[in-house]
Amino acid sequence: MPIPYRLLFLLNADTASIFEIKRLDVQSDNPGDVYFWLYFDRASRQLRHLTFVAMHADGDEQQREFAQGRLRFTTTTGTYTPADAGPALALQPVVPPTLPAELEAALFALFRETRPAE
Hints:
Order of helices and strands: EEHEEEEEEEH
Distance between the termini: 14 Å
Helix content: 10-25%
Strand order of the largest sheet: 4-3-2-1-9-8-7-6-5
Mean pLDDT: 92
Low-confidence stretches: none
Number of domains: 1
Structural class: alpha+beta
Strand content: over 45%
Radius of gyration: 14 Å
Number of helices: 2
Shape: globular
């Protein structure tokens, strides 16, 4: 079953997409229950959750720290640097953000798989 969400950021590269959603069906004072950063690998078609550590803003540049790497972006450009010392990924922000059907299907599948037993 689809989850209600709002797409906050979407950054694309030829090989991957990184995006943030806000779940609209969760009421919590813990931002980690409501906001999710996700990494979609186009080659494997795998979507994985990025473990949020911190965020900063420096003028127009947004910065996000994850256990898996560092994301820096503006409205026109972005870079994701993996923590495992792999090559940096040049990203293009999508403004306004619109999640393609392929990514939305992967998002719904991920939340179906990780939903706690009722």
